[in-house]
Design a protein that fits this description.
Largest interface: A-B, 41 and 42 residues
Low-confidence stretches of chain B: none
Structural class of chain A: mainly alpha
Number of helices of chain B: 12
Number of domains of chain B: 1
Oligomer: heterodimer
Shape of chain A: globular
Mean pLDDT of chain B: 87
Distance between the termini of chain A: 27 Å
Mean pLDDT of chain A: 89
Helix content of chain B: over 70%
Structural class of chain B: mainly alpha
């Protein structure tokens, strides 16, 4: 994104890159079906567990969630999993390991933008083809919570967008450790573990003691990947907090992108040094 | 003898490759304990959020998840990486495996033995030891035998599921994550008492596929608890039979798959 270029050109390039990201994932139709099947099986597993918790909890509302809110939490969470892309992205670290990353530096577009744009296209593909199937199955087999506030759905959309940006930022940073470690499998493993549990995939983070949940929200970007969009959608909190959580998510997303740019600059300097 | 040396060479190459990036390997080794620790942690958090889950207390829940994770950790260590088969089929590595005069399955396992997962085994068994302490078990010779047999039978069972899931790649290269629904999904299923689930979903996973016999039924037999779902106590001792059935099926499907395999030509 050269500063001398007009803004419109930048947008066109960004749009074209995003569209290429969308098309790339649209190619693997069988894999999309296979992935949705797996999301749905896990949806059943997690939904039954949380409903059993609700059945055993005093008042039937563990951590302030009603059973239908928990069911929505699980099924929408299964849909979001691939949209936000918690797992399995090793593209940058693979390119660093093989040295192909040098080609990224020759392009007239900043590497962070060069990964962000196709990732948004990928997320859009996920939103159309991976988000809907678990949600439909959830609606058929379980009693789901439908949001009542008129602004909840658009706010959820914004929250998902911020989650995707935050996730790309984190994945970029984790992959970028390969600039220094040469093999990023360890950090990626660490990310896989942390992302699942701290994003609220295995259980809603509100099940944790209050102080711990608040610390996670403020001090780490992970709850912004899934827990925030899901809490926004099931209207778990009063309106101000609902908006406040999305605001916090936006701060983290901006911070992560800035950090990516910084790390990339440091890495480029190092890459030159390595090339002698 | 020459065959054994060939296998040892595969294993040696594997060892050298994992230890060549030492920093990353160390991180991986330690974080891998995290995988099992998280399974247990998730169960503890879930049980903490309420008084009982489907009529089971926290200690009982820990016993079930520990039996499940011992079985899974053993199987995952031994054959877990077989799920890379779809990559091998796609990239043509499978051709190289098949032309060697060695067993394809053993080669695939040794080519990618997950040394980094080794620490998960002692961790799982430590959790099992804790679970046995916090539950009251009325020890009889049969129960001692069950305690030894249950994780092993569970491991054989999970290994069969791994091989069966991977075999999908012979027919459906682009099978993506379908296998995970049964390997990791099965692990998640067995981590909780079976009465947590209901309807046809429970019937399929617990009895149709046999996951109910990995941890839930043996745990009931160890605790001497009646099954709220009505199976008799001896069902806990049936896990080796279920495991052998699964292993037989997996072996048959694997052989058919190998015969069915046609190279991608790459």
């Amino acid at each position: 994104m050269s500063p001398r270029r007009p803004f419109r050109d930048t947008c066109t390039t960004f749009g074209a890159l995003s569209w290429s990201g969308f098309r790339r994932y649209a190619t693997y139709r069988q894999a999309t079906i296979a992935g949705s099947f797996t999301n749905i099986v896990f949806g059943f597993l997690r939904c039954y567990v949380l409903l059993a918790v609700a059945a055993g909890a005093v008042g039937g509302t563990p951590a302030g969630y009603r059973p239908d809110q928990l069911a929505t939490f699980v099924w929408v969470g299964q849909g979001l999993l691939t949209v936000v892309s918690l797992w399995g992205w090793t593209e940058l670290s693979d390119r660093i390991r093989t040295g192909e990353v040098t080609a990224d530096l020759l392009r007239p577009i900043h590497p962070v933008t060069g990964y962000l744009a196709p990732d948004l296209g990928r997320a859009l593909h996920g939103m159309v083809f991976r988000f809907v199937p678990p949600l439909v199955v959830g609606l058929i087999f379980f009693d789901l919570y439908l949001p009542g506030r008129w602004f909840t759905v658009p706010l959820f959309g914004l929250s998902v967008l911020l989650a995707v940006v935050g996730s790309l930022g984190l994945r970029f940073l984790v992959n970028a450790t390969a600039y220094w470690l040469h093999d990023a499998r360890g950090p990626i493993m660490l990310w896989t573990l942390a992302a699942g549990v701290l994003a609220g995939l295995y259980f809603p983070l509100r099940f944790l003691p209050g102080w711990l949940a608040v610390t996670l929200w403020v001090a780490t970007p992970f709850p912004g990947l899934m827990q925030t969009p899901l809490d926004v959608l099931v209207e778990r909190d009063p309106v101000p907090l609902q908006f406040g959580l999305v605001g916090l998510q936006a701060v983290w997303a901006a911070l992560l992108l800035a950090l990516c740019v910084l790390v990339q600059r440091r890495a480029e300097r190092r890459l030159v040094a390595q090339g002698g | 003898m020459a065959e054994l040396r060939a296998y040892a060479a595969l294993l040696g190459g594997q060892w050298r490759s994992v230890t060549s990036y030492r920093a990353s390997f160390a991180v991986e080794m330690v974080t891998n304990i995290g995988g099992t620790a998280l399974d247990v942690f998730a169960v503890v958090v879930i049980f903490q959020a309420t008084t009982t889950v489907a009529g089971f207390s926290l200690p009982e829940g820990v016993l079930i998840v520990s039996l499940s994770s011992c079985a899974f950790a053993l199987a995952d260590f031994a054959v877990g990486n077989i799920d890379r088969l779809k990559t091998y089929v796609r990239t043509g590595t499978m051709d190289a495996v098949l032309v060697r005069p060695l067993s394809a399955l053993v080669q695939l396992i040794l080519m990618d033995l997950p040394v980094r997962k080794a620490l998960r085994l002692p961790f799982s068994f430590a959790v099992l030891a804790v679970a046995l302490r916090i539950n009251h078990v009325d020890w009889t010779p049969a129960r001692v035998a069950l305690l030894v047999v249950a994780p092993l039978a569970g491991a054989v069972f999970f290994s069969s599921i791994f091989v069966l899931s991977a075999s999908l790649a012979f027919w459906w290269v682009d099978s993506g994550e379908v296998g995970s629904a049964f390997t990791y999904g099965g692990r998640d299923f067995t981590a909780y008492p079976t009465p947590v689930y209901s309807g046809w979903f429970r019937a399929v996973f617990a009895y149709g596929l046999g996951f109910g016999f990995v941890a839930y039924q043996p745990a009931l037999a160890l605790l001497g608890r009646a099954d709220p779902l009505g199976l008799p106590t001896w069902a806990g001792f049936a896990s080796p039979v279920v495991a052998l059935l699964a292993a037989g099926l997996a072996a048959a499907v694997w052989r058919t798959g190998i015969r069915h395999y046609r190279s991608t030509g790459s």
